[in-house]
TrEMBL record:
It is found in: Cell membrane. It catalyses: nitrate + a quinol = a quinone + nitrite + H2O. InterPro entries: Heme-iron_electron_transfer, NarG-like_domain, NarG-like_sf, Nitrate_red_gam. This is nitrate reductase (quinone). The keyword Oxidoreductase applies. It comes from the Bacteria. Dimer of heterotrimers each composed of an alpha, a beta and a gamma chain. Alpha and beta are catalytic chains; gamma chains are involved in binding the enzyme complex to the cytoplasmic membrane. It comes from Achromobacter agilis. GO terms for biological process: anaerobic electron transport chain; nitrate assimilation. It holds the Pfam family Nitrate_red_gam. Heme b binds at residues 57, 67, 188, 206. It is a multi-pass membrane protein. Keywords: Cell membrane, Electron transport, Heme, Iron, Membrane, Metal-binding, Nitrate assimilation, Oxidoreductase, Transmembrane, Transmembrane helix, Transport. The keyword Cytoplasm does not apply.
Amino acid sequence: MPLGLHNFLFVVYPYICLAVFLMGSLARFDRDQYTWKSDSSQLLRARQLRWGSNLFHIGILFLLFGHTVGLLTPHFLYAWLITAPQKQLLAIVSGGIAGLICFVGLTMLLHRRIADPRIRRTSHRTDLAILCILWVQLVLGLVTLPVSWSHRVDASAMLILADWAQGIFTFRPDAAGLLTVGWQFKVHMVLGMTIFLLFPFSRLVHVWSGFASLAYLVRPYQLVRSRRMDLSTHASAPRDGEKA
């Protein structure tokens, strides 16, 4: 890969994707709130949808949390508890299991939308496109596992990727270390950033609603009065000109 293209993809492109991801989501919520939904077709092939959706969401949420914590946590914060090779081995095993679960669920969802003519006719092209992109991304992630296993002794690949991700979020981007990383990781990273770029223009925006629903866990109690209490209070209130 030419050095100029390498620097663009891993220094400039991440900020383009993050900017579109954040500003695009805000703009869609502000302008097109009625499209802020998952467009479920749950009345058709409900059993396949239930299994596929549950497996997909369990796997993808674990992978999202694992990637976020694994890449953005500085090494010195966990060095007292676990070594870098042990962390990489944990990531390979847990990420591989979650990836397989997510892959099975997503394959079921994709098959459901393609194989059933009724669902295919009611599906938007963006629905099929984003499912296909996620499926390819999962395959690429699973492909990186054997490469990660070969680096499990020194965890060199994991440390390089973590340094790059932390540099992006601390506005100190440095893609020099990625020159030694395998092509599987690079393609996986570029496609992952592209998913963030496409996020505001797809049904994936409903993920924000899922995170926003966590606010219900800490909301204050609501005071609810019965209609009978409201009527009795209104009847007992003094009228204008009357003494209380």
